[in-house]
Amino acid sequence: MVVVDGAGVPLGSQLASASPAEVTLAEGTLKKISVPQPRGRPRNRPLRVIADRGSMAMPIRANHVYVIPPDADLLIEDYTFKVVSPRSKRNVQVDLFLTSLAAAMGARAIGIILSGLDGDGAEGCKQIKAKGGTTFAQDISAEVGNMPLHAQASGCVDFVLSPADMPGELQRLASTYKKRSDDAH
C-alpha cells in the first residue's frame, strides 16, 4: 500500500505512527522538504531519500517513509520507485504518482490525499477508482484543504477522514486483502 501525502512528513508520520502493526505502509511523500530526521516520525519507520540512480530502480520496502528529491516526479514500475528528473510540469506530481500506482497495483492500490495546495491528486484518485482501488481524503482538519477538497469533488473518494481516523479503516482494508489472499490459496 502507498500513502501519498501532499503536505509533507508531519501529517504522513502522524498517520503512520497511528497505524496498527498489521498495516504495512510505504509512504511516498511528494513534497520538497528538509530531510534530516523530521520530528514526529516513528522510529520504527526508517526515512529514505529516493535518489535518481540512473537506470536503477529503488525497491519499495514496507514500513519506510520515502521522500523524493526536489524537482522530480515519482512513479511506480514493477514494484519499484522510479524517479523522473527534472519534473515534467508543476502541480501534477501526485496525479502522476497515483496514476502509476493504479497501473501497478490495480484493485490493491490505496491513495490518500492529505493537506495541500492546488487540485493535484484528483485525477490520480479517478485512476485508482477506475482500477478498483480505494481512495481517502483528509477531512476539514486539513490545514490547507485544496487537494482533499478537489479529490472529494472528483467523486472518486471512498473515505473522508482525519489522519487520526484513517488507520482503523486501513486496518480493516488490510484484513480484507489478507482474507481474499488466504481464500485464493
Give the overall silhouette. globular
**Number of separate strands:** 10
Alpha plus pi helix count: 5
Largest sheet: 4 strands, parallel
Summarize model confidence as the mean pLDDT: 75
Radius of gyration: 15 Å
The fourth-level CATH homologous superfamily is: Methylesterase CheB, C-terminal domain
Provide the low-confidence segments as ranges: 20-29, 31-43
Strand fraction equals 15-25%
Can you list the strand order of the major beta sheet?
A: 1-2-5-3
Q: What is the first-to-last residue Cα distance?
A: 21 Å
User: In total, how many domains does the architecture comprise?
Assistant: 1
CATH architecture identity: 3-Layer(aba) Sandwich
CATH class: Alpha Beta
* CATH topology term: Rossmann fold
Structural class per helix/strand content? alpha/beta
Helical content stands at: 25-40%
Strand/helix succession: EHEEEEEEHEHEHEH
Description:
- There is one protein chain.
- The protein is an alpha/beta fold.
- The protein has one domain (2-177): Rossmann fold.
- The chain has helices at residues 9-18, 93-105, 122-130, 146-153, 166-184; strands at 2-5, 26-29, 47-49, 58-59, 64-67, 73-77, 80-84, 110-113, 134-138, 159-161.
- The strands form three sheets. It has a four-stranded parallel beta sheet, sandwiched between helices.
- α2 (93-105) packs parallel to α3.
- The longest helix has 19 residues, at 166-184.
